[in-house]
Amino acid sequence: xxxxxxxxxxxxxxWVGIMLIALDAPALSQTASAGNLNQLLQDSYKALQxxxxxxxxxxxxxxxxxxxxxQLAWSYLGQAYEYLPNLTKAVEVYQTLIAxxxxxxxAYNNLGWxxxxxxxxxxxxxxxxxxxxxxxxxxxxxxxxxxxxxxxxQWEEALTFANQAAELAPTEVSRWYYxxxxxxxxxxxxxxxxxxxxxxxxxxxxxxxxxxxYALAEAGLxxxxxxxxxxxxxxxxxxxxxxxxTLADGDRCTEKLRSLPLMLDTAGWVLFKQGKIKEAEPYLExxxxxxxxxxxxxxxxxxxxxxxxxxxAVRMFALAHVRADFTRADSEEAMxxxxxxxxxxxxxxxxxxxxxxxxxxxxxxxxxVLADASGKVLDSQIESPAFPGADELLxxxxxxxxxxPGFALRTIRSIEFINDEGNWFASDSYVGLTPxxxxxxxxxxxxEITRTTPVSQSVSCSAAF
Length: 465
Known about the structure:
alpha+beta, Serine Threonine Protein Phosphatase 5, Tetratricopeptide repeat, two-stranded antiparallel sheet, 58% helix, disordered N terminus
């Protein structure tokens, strides 16, 4: 960028930051001192370490008001906004920080991460590249650029940066895992095995075993090893689970249960890739029951299509499209399998045309239930507003079960209902009283369900600082 343009941009972004202070900052004493500034910086840093994002934000805003050119204060403020989350504000803050110091050692990387979460992938890639111009061996920007390029399907270039990222941080499991994933995509299968083995020789979590297992299954590679990894990960994780006994248990078990769906989905997908269609279903059903996602819904649609339950599969496929996380799913395989099950593309198109899907989900009523492992409602509590026939409807309802070989759980579930001209029907359900956290990028859109719906690239929102 020409220098005179950079200077103009710097001035304008600096005033964006000043306006942000004016909007958000509490009233400040005119006699604030350097001592106050140092204390506020310490308070903001401590709050970030304790994950008290709001306190970190407040302290950082006061610090920027005392010294509008203090780069550390702006950096802390940006991080606080990221995690609140208020990504639009975080973008403004990092732009202001860059205006103050166009050669900042991390601002471009952090700005890129915010852009990624907002779905602005091209801008994220540009920010990561700029960070590497400023600091060529920035470990985080190198890794994040590899991930962003992979999300765009630019795997050859992603492989280059994934190699560099693993070299720069050789003790980080995620770097070797992503390198292996890039190597799969570029056909370097022997290198893939070495990268995954390297990842698993490092200290790692059960979720790392899940990630490797899923990548192997997606590639149809070493499926026995993939099954061993995911069953080991599930066994380790289920030891920490708890089971609801009454409605009064509320969210007591929710957080721990929500660590399971990714692993259960992986287990079901490995079995599907092994040709064990019937055995895959309880794992996928359980994943979807705990936290519904478009990925598990598409996987279930494929399994149901393989079992000959075509109408059910097509409906599940259509419903997956209106979930906020659909942009993170790859629907291409589901489309292929459904077209085969339906007879051909034209017949699938016709079936999709008959499915009525609400483009903007709403909740007209919510019911909290205790369900047994098979999904049968044992007890319920209707939240306002109550609606006619709710008790009878709940008695006849069969939710997806949370049960797979060797494991079965009673769960507290929230069921969301829609009122369609006096007819009430369940639109969704999930484990716990609180809704699942939103995916990393949740664009709002209305879509038309057709066979020609573009295939979305899989998006990963991992980042580092």
